[in-house]
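Figure 6 in text form: structure in, sequence out.
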């Protein structure tokens, strides 16, 4: 924006050199003011818009967990005798699992989803790039950055 203003100022001082001009009804010429393009915020991916762990959890992790894990992890108020805990839908509870380990790939949450730590639902992530492990790993990286730690 400063560059555009500087260009207009120089063009005005030098008589419009190099700038397109437009004529008004009274015959006076003035330089055409270039407009900066407006950015479209809607094109920004959700992954990049969440800058803290809780925002990323709510926007990305929780929906992935709901999609992949709600077959067993249901609200016991909605279904009597629910087979698994609903803690997986809570940021603080999940963060404890996520930060229990040395890296995005090696932590209790990823190991639970892979059934390295016994998981009644079996291996939900045969590959670390499968959902929800992909989202867990990205979340751990955000948490590590926010804490300023390299684990």
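Output sequence:
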């Amino acid at each position: 924006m400063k560059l555009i203003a500087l260009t207009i100022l120089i063009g005005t001082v030098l008589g419009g050199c190099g700038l397109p001009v437009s004529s008004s009804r009274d015959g006076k010429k003035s330089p055409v003011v270039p407009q900066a393009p407006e950015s479209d915020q809607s094109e920004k991916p959700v992954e990049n818009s969440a800058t803290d762990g809780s925002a990323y959890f709510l926007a990305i992790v929780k929906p992935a967990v709901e999609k992949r894990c709600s077959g067993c992890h249901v609200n016991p108020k909605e279904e009597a005798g629910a087979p698994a805990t609903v803690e997986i839908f809570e940021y603080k509870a999940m963060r404890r699992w996520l930060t229990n380990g040395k890296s995005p790939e090696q932590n209790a949450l990823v190991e639970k989803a892979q059934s390295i730590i016994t998981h009644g639902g079996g291996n939900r992530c045969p590959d670390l790039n499968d959902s929800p492990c992909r989202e867990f790993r990205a979340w751990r990286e955000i948490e590590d950055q926010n804490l300023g730690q390299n684990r």
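Caption detail: The two ends are 41 Å apart (CA to CA).
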